[in-house]
Amino acid sequence: MDKSFLTWGKRFLWLNMIFSFLFLYIPIVVLVLFSFNDSRLGAKWGGFTFKWYIEMFNSEAVLTAFSNSIMVAVISTVIATILGTMTAIAMERFRFPFRRTYDGILYLPVIIPDIVMGVSLLAFFALLLGSVNTAFGLEGNAAWRPGLTTVIIAHVAFNISFVAIVVRTSLKDFDKSLEEAAQDLGADEWITFRHITLPLIMPGILGGALLAFTLSLDDFVITFFTTGPGGTTLPIEVFGRIRRSISPEINAISTVMLIMSMMLIVISQFIQRRNNV
């Protein structure tokens, strides 16, 4: 094969990689840069300032939405991590009827569009809450309505699958002879799980938990369909502000969310590398 052809092929691959990175990250760099713009006009640079970050942290609406996002992310992550880990262990260690069917259902939240899951959860909560309110005669302010509770349940519903997939990856390379050795030395199933199995799969559990936390923190579509009064999260707050006007304060909020997501990704990568060492 002609060496010049290989050389041009390598150049093309390099150019393609550079173009892809620029296409993906230049808008993010512009967003971060204009979060320090002194001008309220989005397309005009008026100097460097931190005032939009100051206004953001002084805004009661933003702080409420931020606290709601953190609360939803933490609670849903804890529940999804426990249920997802149990699901992963059951799928890898046990054989039971309809196992393959359940395995296929487990991947649905990963495959189906968010809009489909959001609409289906909206219909489910509308039917459930309507039935409960009718059964107990709840009306007015006493009636149950969508809010942070329904958002947490919705986030748990789609995060379980992501946690289970990550934990199952850890279980596939698990050395079962270590468990057998512990049981030969007199350890029962609980002690073996607590001292042998759990520590070995803990990096996978933590990786799944960080992934679930990131997805929950950034989710907009499913949250938009399942939230209610008093259940505004940070992505919902950003969307509401964009509909009114685009200001550098929105860029500041988005930059903070970007930094939080990047920190979680770095922590996740660090944990996975420690597991591979």
Question: Please, could you describe this protein's structure?
Answer:
This protein has 277 residues and is an all-alpha fold. It has one domain (60-276): MetI-like (MetI-like fold, Orthogonal Bundle), CATH 1.10.3720.10. 79% of the residues lie in helices and 0% in strands. The protein is globular and about 70 Å long. The mean pLDDT is 82.
Quick recap:
The chain is mainly alpha-helical and 277 residues long. The chain is 79% helix and 0% strand.
pLDDT < 50 runs, ≥5 residues: none
Based on CA inertia axes, which overall geometry fits? globular
Number of domains: 1
Q: Which percent bin holds the helix content?
A: over 70%
* Radius of gyration, whole Å: 24 Å
Q: How many helix segments?
A: 12
**CATH topology name:** MetI-like fold
Helix-strand layout with pairing:
Blueprint: H1 3-34, H2 51-58, H3 60-93, H4 99-106, H5 108-111, H6 114-136, H7 148-172, H8 176-184, H9 189-218, H10 221-226, H11 234-244, H12 248-276
